[in-house]
Write a structure and sequence with these properties.
Pfam families: LUD_dom (PF02589). It comes from Sphaerisporangium flaviroseum. This is LUD domain-containing protein. The protein is α/β, with parallel strands linked by helices. It has one domain: NagB/RpiA/CoA transferase-like (Rossmann fold, 3-Layer(aba) Sandwich), CATH 3.40.50. Helices cover about 25% and strands about 25% of the residues. A six-stranded parallel β-sheet has the order 1-12-7-4-2-3, sandwiched between helices. A hairpin with a 5-residue loop joins β10 and β11. The longest helix has 13 residues. It starts with a helix and ends with a strand. The relative contact order is 0.20.
């Protein structure tokens, strides 16, 4: 018998005959809806990401401005990305068909994607490899990630976001640019993913 089996056996013996206890699970499943887009933008900025909150009609111009500001021309464009987002941009589009190799992705000036959901209370963006997002590697290897988030995609809380997601899909949770700290708390960005995250939040016309 292994140590694990002995420990579990002792636990079973100790609780044998104990009455069943009902554990209340009144978890909060949603948050306030008012101001969730503003909170999302604030929390994303807290992670040192660049954030633009614009009307849907200005997404293409904002995307073009963001890419031009970085001098990004060779940009990875996943299948299914809305064409209107790139209408004002002059790009050398890198398609992932056939799949781009690590060297190609690392040499790209950046990647532009949509998302599955945004989370206001944590400033997190979730990708699920759906249309306009591509496979996970596309957003981990380029040094710059430009992500467009629709205001309607912003959930107020984590439980609300989880309820919108399919757990069978490959989920990537992004909270700001990739960053880590050593034992002396010296922050280093770009170790596990993009060094720069830029987010365009598209609000519907009022």
């Amino acid at each position: 018998m292994s140590s694990r089996d002995r420990i579990l056996s002792r636990i079973r013996s100790a609780v044998a005959g104990a009455p069943e206890v009902e554990i209340p699970r009144g978890y909060r499943t949603s948050g306030p809806q008012a101001g969730r887009v503003e909170l999302f933008a604030e929390r994303v900025r807290d992670y040192r990401a660049i954030v633009h909150v614009v009307p849907e009609s200005e997404v293409a111009a904002t995307v073009a401005m963001a890419l031009s500001g970085r001098g990004a021309r060779r940009v990875v464009v996943p299948d299914g990305l809305p064409e209107e987002w790139l209408a004002a941009s002059d790009l050398d589009r890198l398609r992932d068909d056939p799949p781009l190799g690590p060297a190609d992705l690392d040499a790209a000036d950046g990647v532009i994607t949509g998302c599955a959901v945004g989370i206001a209370e944590t400033g997190t963006i979730v990708l699920d490899a759906g249309p306009g997002q591509g496979r996970r590697g596309l957003t981990l290897l380029p040094d710059y990630h430009l992500c467009v988030v629709g205001a309607g995609q912003v959930a107020s809380s984590v439980p609300e976001a989880v309820a919108r997601l399919d757990p069978a899909r490959p989920l990537t949770w992004i909270s700001g640019p990739s960053a880590t700290s050593d034992i002396e708390l010296n922050r280093v960005e770009g170790v596990h993913g993009p060094r720069t995250l830029e987010v365009v939040i598209a609000e519907p016309a009022s």
